[in-house]
Amino acid sequence: MLEQVEFHGGELDSAMYPPLRDSGDKHSPNSLFHEDLPASPIPSEGGDMEPAGLCAPPIPGLFFVPSLLLPLELADKITEFCLKHYFNRPGVNQIMLFGAASDSTPWSGLPPILLELLASMSVLLQPSLPPEIHALLFPRTPAHARQAILNLYHPGEGIIPHVDLLKRFGIVGLSLGSSCVMQFARVDEVDSTVCPKHIFLPERTMIVLPGDARYAWIHGIEKRTTDLVADADTFRIVERGVRLSITFRWLLPSEDVVGLEA
């Protein structure tokens, strides 16, 4: 079981450092873009790579703008910080952080660099999101604790298709260091021959998954070292590198304690 990791005055509490885990598909019951609930594999034709588009497929609640990128300087600073402070031991590939539910607590729970990231994402995403979704993701006065999940993926690793937890909401994810292809399929079509939707997530892009995109669709990432991307009238092979995934989501009361899922 993963342990809670918190920041106290900017110092990492080593006594609460997560245990080492083997590489491969991520198996955490508390992480987004990682299998939260058991799900059937997304069907694929003949086991061959399906081309991924550069634009978001027509999935209700899915918000993705491929040209909207986190500034390179900030992306590099965040990557360097995370690799130095969290992924500095062999085999460590997931870190979970919990923020405070309000400003009244004596500690923020999240390191300043992640708070800077949230502020930047809020500004970047505001023009592209409906006001109610933006207010859910970036409320002026937080009413719930925020969870940050950091995952490090090497080429060939993937995410088992899953439906996200019901007690987590306000999801926004960021890819750093490498691109990947995420695939979606309706929950009621996972056992059919209907092909899933594929979306290419370039490095430094953000994806938002509220509503049906989270609960009526499963999402995952196949274990591959390359991805096939449809670009205009051509196709190209894109090699995967080491990818740092950062996911933020709000928690309902008591959900900042790992392992309490019903």
Describe this structure in words.
The protein has 262 residues and is an alpha+beta fold. The chain has a single domain (7-251), classed as Jelly Rolls. Helices cover 15% and strands 30% of the residues. The chain is built from four helices and 14 strands. It has a six-stranded antiparallel sheet with strand order 3-10-7-14-5-4. A four-stranded antiparallel sheet has the order 6-11-8-9. A two-stranded antiparallel sheet has the order 1-2.
Quick structural gist:
The chain is an alpha+beta fold and 262 residues long. The chain has four helices and 14 strands. Mean pLDDT is 77; it is low at 1-25, 27-47 and 253-262.
Query: Gyration radius, to the nearest Å?
Result: 18 Å
Which CATH class applies here?
A: Mainly Beta
CATH topology: Jelly Rolls
Given the structure, what is the number of helices?
A: 4
Helix content: 10-25%
Strand order of the largest sheet: 3-10-7-14-5-4
Give the H and E element order: EEEHEHHEEEEEEHEEEE
Average pLDDT for all residues: 77
Q: Which strand-content bin applies to the residues?
A: 25-35%
Structurally, the number of domains stands at 1
| Known CATH architecture | Sandwich
Q: Classify the secondary structure makeup into a structural class.
A: alpha+beta
Distance between the termini: 15 Å
Number of strands: 14
The biggest beta sheet reads: 6 strands, antiparallel
Looking at how many chains there are and whether they match, the oligomeric state comes to single chain
Uncertain segments are 1-25, 27-47, 253-262
Shape: globular
